[in-house]
Amino acid sequence: MNYYRYQSIDPENKVQEPQMTRRQYDFIVVGGGSAGAVIANRLSEVRNWTVLLLEAGGDETEISDVPALAGYLQLTDLDWKYTTTPSPTRQYCQAMKGDRCFWPRGKVLGGSSVLNAMVYVRGSRNDYNHWEALGNPGWGYENVLKYFLKSEDVRNPYLAKTAYHETGGYLTVQESPWRTPLSIAFLQAGMEMGYEVRDINGEQQTGFMLTQSTIRRGSRCSTGKAFIRPVRLRKNLDVLLHAHATKVLIDKNKRAIGVEFLKKGQKNVVFVRREVILSAGALNSPQLLMLSGIGPADHLQEHGINVISDLPVGDNLQDHVGLGGLTFVVDAPLTVTRSRFQTIPVAMEYILRERGPMTFSGVEGVAFLNSKYQDPSVDWPDIQFHFLPSSINSDGGEQIRKILNLRDGFYNTVYKPLHSSETWSILPLLLRPKSTGWVRLNSRNPLQQPKLIPNYFAHQEDIDVLVEGIKLAINVSNTQAFQRFGSRPHNIPLPGCRHYEFMSDAYWGCAIKQFTFTIYHPAGTCKMGPSWDVTAVVDPRLRVYGVSGIRVADASIMPTIMNGNPNAPVIMIGEKASDLIKEDWGARPTRQYG
Ligand SMILES: Cc1cc2nc3c(=O)[nH]c(=O)nc-3n(C[C@H](O)[C@H](O)[C@H](O)COP(=O)(O)OP(=O)(O)OC[C@H]3O[C@@H](n4cnc5c(N)ncnc54)[C@H](O)[C@@H]3O)c2cc1C
């Protein structure tokens, strides 16, 4: 009896779907991901508003709780399993089967915050000041900082006491409770290279840091867990899982009146009194807008869709791209290998004590650096490193090669020989790409994935900056901190780049087109901008131009992709969107509500 009662009051228990839904809600939020979960929570703080959250996926599993198993969620039912369209000129993803990179996206309550590597980064203050300067009042750093703080519950006391962190919010942030000795070598290497070791979420971004993660007591803290579970008993909030929205219904006055969705193969319609908020992510929000008649007129007409508002929906697709598989070898047994870590004692330590290697997401350190093209005095670094005490071969070829869609010959030639080596890697990433891509419909079928064209490396400057980033990563291996362990680059050249001198600029320029590595940060496809910006889809209050009663609030609204991993910024967007909506409908913004 007590057990059942505990289940109903436990703030971390899973959501239960309602037996019956209402015919009409004040707000319908489509997508319960990083942004949507926050918005459903914050809007339902207003007790006399009714809120429906429609989520296409189900709930999280025991596997998704375990940070070290993040890679095992891809290609499962929790993933939309999207792939990029091959480049006609083979500009990217050449080492992948069919020249297609996989683009995993969370299809689950919590969205991509359930699949992600849990790295907590807010971006540079310059990103947000730039958004504001583009004509988006209220999006400057000083304003958005309060929303980062509002959601945060940091668990490291030394961070909590600074002005840049907060305790008591819904989202738990902490350094991983477990790390390898190489993580400290990474910080020492940064200092040898002239960088500060600092909280890159604090006063300045340039520097090296041990990863801050969205982890709670050794488990993943997704936005589903953080924002929905604690409020799942609110009477005015209904959450429907496995509910796939197919269209926003818009009347002849161009006002949103409801949402059509599929559940258990049945078509349903639910009506809205105030607003529909699309938080389906940077790939699905533009898809839904286009299916609803909002998008580039020519493209919609091509698919026989009635045009309601002609807008550049799906353009401005931006992503962080880098070189995958940049691997270094050391002599000492300091790295994460399958034989040492896939063991019963390691599993037991996690199950019984919520500690040990399974609490670690793979990324031990992050750093923000300046290539020779970036003025270091501006504190707007153009390169990010993710430091991993492992490589794509550390699992013996079991999973990582699959989720990267690597061609067998490529993997066997370059990475299989690392079989019994101790390896570590850096993922050098281009932070502010000039090349932008686009999302389009493949068809009118809402169940078919949209066409995703990342258009990486269309600008030579992107290649030049990234090549400099790769050379900076090699400098890390050359520092005394890593030379102590005999660190050296893995020296098998990539098959398609053998005609270049190994490790020359031309070689690296070739390597990034072969082993193109995105860490899955698509953004910008429903760009926020002022009314005079012809490339904008939503206004600075996130309302879609040309219609009423629809907002977009997720990674799609970023005018330019921010410097770093987007989960925390998207949560911030969810927080700020909620306050904008409350202001517009005359409700008081709240600071916190249990
Ligand atoms: C593998 C991976 C690793 C990553 N690692 C990191 C990291 O370590 N740190 C970091 O900061 N960021 C990381 N990211 C990126 C980050 O997680 C995303 O940028 C962020 O979660 C995007 O939030 P969102 O709200 O825009 O979209 P999502 O979180 O993807 O949410 C969209 C939600 O909408 C639902 N949905 C979509 N279409 C429909 C529909 N038609 N009807 C109903 N529901 C729908 C989806 O199922 C999903 O739940 C990673 C992403 C991936 C995929």
Automatic annotation (TrEMBL):
<protein>
    <submittedName>
        <fullName>Glucose dehydrogenase (Acceptor)</fullName>
    </submittedName>
</protein>
<feature type="binding site">
    <location>
        <begin position="116"/>
        <end position="119"/>
    </location>
    <ligand>
        <name>FAD</name>
    </ligand>
</feature>
<dbReference type="GO" id="GO:0050660">
    <property type="term" value="F:flavin adenine dinucleotide binding"/>
</dbReference>
<feature type="domain" description="Glucose-methanol-choline oxidoreductase N-terminal">
    <location>
        <begin position="106"/>
        <end position="129"/>
    </location>
</feature>
<dbReference type="InterPro" id="IPR007867">
    <property type="entry name" value="GMC_OxRtase_C"/>
</dbReference>
<dbReference type="InterPro" id="IPR012132">
    <property type="entry name" value="GMC_OxRdtase"/>
</dbReference>
<keyword id="KW-0732">Signal</keyword>
<keyword id="KW-0274">FAD</keyword>
<feature type="domain" description="Glucose-methanol-choline oxidoreductase N-terminal">
    <location>
        <begin position="281"/>
        <end position="295"/>
    </location>
</feature>
<dbReference type="GO" id="GO:0016614">
    <property type="term" value="F:oxidoreductase activity, acting on CH-OH group of donors"/>
</dbReference>
<dbReference type="InterPro" id="IPR000172">
    <property type="entry name" value="GMC_OxRdtase_N"/>
</dbReference>
<keyword id="KW-0285">Flavoprotein</keyword>
<dbReference type="Pfam" id="PF00732">
    <property type="entry name" value="GMC_oxred_N"/>
</dbReference>
<feature type="binding site">
    <location>
        <position position="108"/>
    </location>
    <ligand>
        <name>FAD</name>
    </ligand>
</feature>
<dbReference type="Pfam" id="PF05199">
    <property type="entry name" value="GMC_oxred_C"/>
</dbReference>
<dbReference type="InterPro" id="IPR036188">
    <property type="entry name" value="FAD/NAD-bd_sf"/>
</dbReference>
<comment type="similarity">
    <text>Belongs to the GMC oxidoreductase family.</text>
</comment>
